[in-house]
Predict the structure.
Amino acid sequence: MDAAAALLVLSAVVSYVVWFSFLNKSLKGPKVWPLLGSLPGLVQNCHRMHDWIAENLRASGGTYQTCIFAIPGLARRQGMVTVTCDPRNLEHILKLRFENYPKGPTWQAVFHDLLGDGIFNSDGDTWRFQRKTAALEFTTRTLRQAMARWVSRAIKLRLIPILDSAMAAGTTVDLQDLLLRLTFDNICGLTFGKDPETLSPGLPDNGFAVAFDRATEATLHRFIIPEFLWRLKRWLRLGMEVTLSSSVLLVEDYLSKIIAARKLELSRAGPAAHDDLLSRFMRKGDYSDSFLQHVALNFILAGRDTSSVALSWFFFLLVQNPRVEEKVLTEICSVLAETRGSENPDSWLEDPLEFEEVDRLVYLKAALSETLRLYPSVPEDSKHVVADDVLPDGTVVPAGSSVTYSIYSAGRMKFIWGEDCMEFRPERWLTSDGKRFDNQDSFKFVAFNAGPRICLGKDLAYLQMKSIAAAVLLRHRLTLAPGHRVEQKMSLTLFMKNGLAVNLHRRDLSKLVETLRAGDGAEAASTR
């Protein structure tokens, strides 16, 4: 009996070794260990995950496959992960075979408690209905004008006074925190017409904002641990699952009160009383409070962190690249000299830029796009594979597996962007005459997603980022606080781990204005 058992164990070991050797040869990504799969590599590189993925993609030509656990029966489906940044594959996944690559059950389970069946956590008919409804609103000029009003108000009454006070006192500020607060206030105003005032003197806590942050953090925690474990913790009410459930209740209570009040206001004041997204959805039909809550939360989640994180990396890159900063500032001043006159540059600082002025800042848009190419707000995204498929580069993806497309890596590949792919060069986004913005292939530049799920708020994001960047740069020159280290935080959004600690210095525009006047004079003389 002992000999039979030993023979059985030996046969199992030999069979596994043979199976594992074939598996290992078929994969060209990071090292796969027996049983543990690629988990040791993930753990070892968890502090630099995005760069590690990019290194593996460079070594494998833009696509690789790995398995989280090297266990027969799981490795080829539930455990298989295909990672790619090849634009051909991205177009296939995000557009050509869109229906075969939904968010999938794992993603939806993780986010369901917070986002329900909202637009960013749904597939199929549920997603299509919300997308169609939202798309009609995002194409209207009135929504962009509403965003411009919220942004201008926050800049003039909140951001600039706080920065001016810090400069006068010689104190360091965490610019990332200020930007997070500003964009949170703006997106709440645009989404449901109420300003939580998190960017106010003293930087107060707001119950809704705190609960929303805690709920988001607890939700992201689910991605770190296996699904069966967080489900067990939720059932036993342990750890972050307790935080999530209590925070979601606070968020829903806050929004339910706003929805009830808004319904009453709309019934009394008529349909044109409010121009926020929540009111616009209410006018489309008689939706449940739960549905409206999830509509609001989905848009807040999408519109809050993305713009603030992008701006944080933008200001960091400008500090490292004074040539680009000078060109951005020159463009802003040139536009203001035309629209507001160059006789009194101090008057430029009285009010934030108007909608039409912001729209003319082409080089600034190029610099922001270049920032998002190198530091996309959402560095990685994933899809579920419904049916067996073959990607354009020949990679076979089995049903039940997942595909991760690395947005961070796509911006850092020589075969996509050229030999200078690691350089911060906004000029790559301009036409040859340098006067117009040159849109790149959306499957090379996927910071705003691509295909049917491309970001509806792309234009609003640029409007907000350009307005904030122009307001700050006109008034202040930024320097990193001595000893401050800028590092990536490993999360679904590319936050700076330690924030962005900067010192503020008064901007002197006199030389730049003189140069612009001299240039105007020379141009006038040449036309005589």
User: Anything to note?
Assistant: The CA atoms of residues 478 and 504 lie 5 Å apart. Residues 521-528 have pLDDT under 50 and may be disordered.
